[in-house]
Amino acid sequence: MESPGSPASTERTGRWRWLWVLPRLAFILFVGGVGLLLWISDRADGEERRATLISDILWLEQNLRFHLMRNEEVLGRIDLTHTADAKAFESFSRTAFGFESGLRQLIWLGADGTVRQAHPITMDPNLVGDAGEAVPSRQSFRLARSLGKPVYGKAYPYFTNDWQFEVHVPVSRQGSVVGVVVGVYRIRDLLGDSVPWWLAERYRISVIGDSGKVLGTRSKVESMVTEEGYQVAFDPPGWGLALHAVPYHAPKPLASALLSASLVILALIVLWSLWILRRHVLRRQAVEEELQREHAFRKAMEDSLDTGMRARSLDGEIIYVNPAFCRMIGWSAAELIGRRPPMPYWADDYLDETRAMHDRVLAGEGPEEGFELRFKHRNGNLLDVLIHEAPLIDARGQQSGWMGSMVDITERKQAEERTRQQQDRLQSTARLVAMGEMASSIAHELNQPLAAISSYCTGAANLLRDQKPATDVLPALDKAVEQARRAGQVIRRIYSLARPGENRFERVRLAEHVDAALALMDGDIRQKGIRISLELSRQVMIDGDPVLLEQALFNLLRNAIESMRDTAPDQRQLTIALNCAEGYASLTIADRGCGIDAGVAGQLFDPLFTTKAEGMGMGLAICRSVVENHRGRLSFEANPEGGTVFHILLPLTPK
After folding, report:
1. In this structure, CATH architecture of domain 505-651
2. For residue range 149-193, what is the model confidence (pLDDT) as tens digits?
């Protein structure tokens, strides 16, 4: 143990002193962060108010534009009967004034520009234009009459400080302008009619001229207006007019100040709590350092092992794994700790076996000499492991779980398997050599007897034809001659497979050879009560050796029929389909037999491999050799209805 005055102890004490300075620094940063947060919040509120101001003034500009355009439509629909009589014109004017339009006077100008009617008459109709000057008004009149659409005039003062502007709306009848309706707007009244109360409660709305002079205002209290504002062009009427909105002062809420004070008080409480905990932390420090040294020593020892270590609780939950175990199975400790069965490293094909052994170990019945299991690496590779389990005892002397050690024996198992496979291949090679020699000898010896049978049968058939015996004998003898010749051809072709030579290919109608192979199996088909379902395309033509193709079809059909030996009689069905698919003849033979076990599927086409007690294991190997010799492919799959489906793909004859 270190003495209190040792350099290491002094260094550690100084380090902890710096750690206790951190809460004070954190408190200062916290207060600064609160102030920054409030400043950012106030700035965000200001930006939000600014965005609301812009949105409101744009809405107001659109609303005023809508009022002006609506008034243009109303004035443009004036009837000439309204302009002929003062009372009728007054009635039309009152109707136009009644929609909060902002209009304060209507004037009817004839086609020559003279004033014909005006309402109200209290306003001097001669004062049309800029303070009695007729030039702007005449220009607007002439422009409206020539363009055929409404034209707005420049704003001008009316009596004291009221400003107004005109709109000249031409009225056409039968393609010609018969007059112009002049609508006079007073800016102050237009704002009063068009600006809603809720907008006036928020802002002071003004219309400003091109010189910056305020021409009209709608305001609540002038003294409460801020200096901020937003301005948009007021067009129409144009002529440099602009809408200007300035928000009123609003009292700042006390929520931010209260929030800041609350946070500061909370920080003080937290700091005081830290100081209270300081003594307790210092007392625990010495004990924790001792535990850390012990833990580091134990972990270094465990990490240096190549043996995987895994600890589980009594209910099977993983509570500890060492690096060697993680490297062995490819999963990290964070991904494994806390997991319950089934574990991610259990092999899918051995789940039942692994779960049974897992339950035995938790029940205390695990083999003392250890046991072997097959696990799965994260990348999918399988590995064989040797595991020893021992009880995990806690500090109170009670069992809290199980500690297992795991050794990877995959390489050892693979070496044993390679040795066994090498022995099997040596034996298979010896049998294959013997079989090849026997097949060659049989082919050589049987050619002469078959040739003699063919000659005798041919002579007998000729004698019978010359002497005209009973005609029933002739078909049987002809079939004997044909089958004897066919047997010789089959043997010669099998012999040629062992010794490659020139193939005798010709154009073959594949459906006919399917029929011929079925005819050879007709007796077995009838005896076993098998139903045949044929879907044959009779036009399918390929280039091939008819004898070898028929022999391969015969082998496949015979296997299909024999596989249904134990099938219920009402389920025995053989389906044969032949069609064309992308330049290939596709032949499918589907039975409802016992099927092919997944464990032997990979060896099904190997020479000398058979699942029959009396078989030699050459039938399917020969079939595949025949199909591949015709540049085709032979494959199989499980029949969804039970049994097996064999697929033959052969290239079609080029047209």
Report:
1. 2-Layer Sandwich (3.30)
2. 888 888 888 766 778 888 898 888 877 888 888 888 888 888 877
